[in-house]
Each structure stands twice: as structure tokens, then as C-alpha cells.
Design goal:
single chain; about 190 residues; mainly alpha; Hypothetical protein af1432; globular; binds fe (ii) ion
Length: about 190
């Protein structure tokens, strides 16, 4: 484990494991998916794994402020945990957060405070999240989007957001799959 992951796991665990055990299992699963694509990430592999295990801490009851979890999580990481800003920005923008932010009137707030800086890593985190069920087991992005829409209801804010985000989610995850396929064709 790197310094970054050694810091990230206990922090995420302390915020999620007890109040939200299912969400914690999801985060562990997303981190596992991150390890599975380490090869395409090179020296950013640990950065992605750290962001993966932390990506949903914004749901933790103690730090949920706006009710929009990417923003709440990123603010906590920036202001309280004083995290590496690349981790902060990945959490802020995970899985097309800007679209949900727009629906909540928080897009300006999100994008002005947290730059979306690495498309490659944003794709990778989206891939990991969208290939993991709420219980942390592997799935695929189509089933994952359907599960979210079903869970929140198709007409809910999140149900509407996830349908609108679906093309971007699928584009993002297929870019990652292409990188994985290319990496497999190359010698280690
Ligand atoms: Fe999330």
C-alpha cells in the first residue's frame, strides 16, 4: 500500500462502516475495481484507489451538509481532512456529478471550487463506480444505471439525472475498456 491508500482506507472506514455499512461495502468494491485497472493508470493507480474508497463519504451523516454527496465529500476532504487536491477533485466530480449538481442548482458552486482536471482519471473512477453494485460486487454500467433509476424512482431527481447521464457514463466506461484492451496487447 502507498501512503495515500494507507491514509484513505481508515478515513473512509471511520466515516462509513458503522453508520452506512452497505455504502462502505460499495466503496470497498469500487476500490477493488480500481486495483483491477491499475495497469492503465501507471503512477496514478494509488491516487485512483484512494479516491475510489473515499468517493461516497459525502453520505456520512456527520458531514452531509448540502445533501449533494459529491460536494459534501469534497468539502470535507479539502477543509477537514486536508487531502491531496487531486483526490478532492476526483471525489467532487465522480460519476458525472456535474449533471446532478445542475439539477440541484449547485453546478456553479461545484465547478468554481473544484476543477475537473483529469479526464482520464474521471473516466476511470466512473468506470469503477458504475461497475460496482450497492453491495460492492461487480456489475455492468447498464444494470447499474437501471438499478439506480429503479431505487430512486424514474421521476425522482436522481432517477432523472442518471438517465440523462447514462450516455456519458457509457462513453466514459467504454473509453476505459478500450484502454484496458490496448494495455493487454502490450507487453508488461
Ligand atoms: Fe456517489
Amino acid at each position: 500500500m502507498s501512503e495515500l491508500t494507507e491514509w484513505a482506507y481508515p478515513l473512509a472506514e471511520s466515516l462509513l462502516a458503522e453508520p452506512l455499512p452497505r455504502r462502505w461495502k460499495h466503496c470497498l468494491g469500487v476500490a477493488e475495481r480500481a486495483r483491477s485497472i491499475a495497469r492503465i493508470l501507471g503512477e496514478d493507480a494509488e491516487l485512483l484507489e484512494a479516491a475510489a474508497v473515499l468517493h461516497d463519504i459525502g453520505y456520512s451523516p456527520g458531514l452531509a451538509k448540502t445533501g449533494f454527496h459529491p460536494l459534501d465529500g469534497a468539502r470535507y476532504l479539502r477543509d477537514v481532512a486536508r487531502a491531496d487536491e487531486r483526490v478532492v477533485n476526483l471525489v467532487a466530480h465522480h460519476s458525472c456529478a456535474w449533471m446532478e449538481a445542475e439539477a440541484r442548482g449547485l453546478r456553479e458552486e461545484l465547478e468554481s471550487k473544484f476543477p475537473r482536471d483529469s479526464p482520464h482519471l474521471n473516466d476511470a473512477l466512473c468506470y469503477c463506480d458504475m461497475n460496482t453494485t450497492p453491495d460492492g460486487t461487480p456489475t455492468n454500467p447498464i444494470d447499474r444505471v437501471n438499478e439506480i433509476a429503479g431505487r430512486y424512482g424514474p421521476d425522482s431527481l436522481i432517477g432523472t439525472f442518471i438517465r440523462r447521464a447514462e450516455p456519458e457514463i457509457l462513453a466514459s466506461t467504454s473509453r476505459v475498456l478500450e484502454r484496458v484492451a490496448t494495455a493487454k496487447r502490450q507487453p508488461m
